[in-house]
Automatic annotation (TrEMBL):
One of its GO terms (biological process) is protein histidyl modification to diphthamide. GO terms for molecular function: methyltransferase activity. This is Diphthine synthase. The keyword Nuclease does not apply. NCBIfam families: dph5 (TIGR00522). Keywords: S-adenosyl-L-methionine. InterPro entries: 4pyrrol_Methylase_sf, 4pyrrole_Mease_sub1, 4pyrrole_Mease_sub2, Dphthn_synthase. It comes from Aspergillus oryzae (strain 3.042). The keyword S-adenosyl-L-methionine applies.
Amino acid sequence: MLYLVGLGLADETDITVKGLEVVKRAERVYLEAYTSILLVNKEKLVTEAMRFSLEQIKQMCQLCAIAMGGVIPNASIMSGIGCTGLQLYNFGQTVSMVFFTENWKPSSYYDKIKENISLGLHTLVLLDIKVKEQSYENMARGRLIYEPPRYMTVAQCASQMLETEEERKEGVYGPDSLAVGAARVGAPDQKLVVGTLKELAEVEMGAPLHSLVLLGRRAHDLEKDYIREFAVDKATFDASWQKGYGATS
């Protein structure tokens, strides 16, 4: 029997009672840590295996392909982002932001944000994680050498968003557009910062993981009252809000 157990957002104490029961009964436990990081010391974990390691366990993979299993759900950033005070039913499509390189600056996320903005909806932006990555040179030479882990920050995301807008020039958002930066959602040192994209491009939010929410124009006054408390500068926040935010219904 194969179970996929959601561990939660922060540390090992976030696991559900049902999930913990399954883990205790399991003969072998693996942690998939490729798409996220766990804010807990490795000593507290039973076994850690990166995604590539699991793929190498061919016998196990073949068994998993035919075995019945179950998914034990838990909190994720998709629900945890409610900590921002923004109403979850006011969110549109979620997008991902990858690290730009000199020759690769994908902007497909921009079109989805454009759709969300046209409907007045918020956009959750998930930020890139680079773990177990190899340089082009090491891959070409067949050297199993990995680059240091990199985790995109809110500041990097905001800067890249503005860079894309400058390139596309469709007016989907701009330096004065309001957004919420969220760091370490669900952890004891969770941090929220609210400001314009220009402000967030300069903000320091500490250790990963980070996420960003671009506000939709239909943002409700109740949402405003909450997020304003985390504003970089309340006067700037108020001025930006007056330019076009607020529920229309």
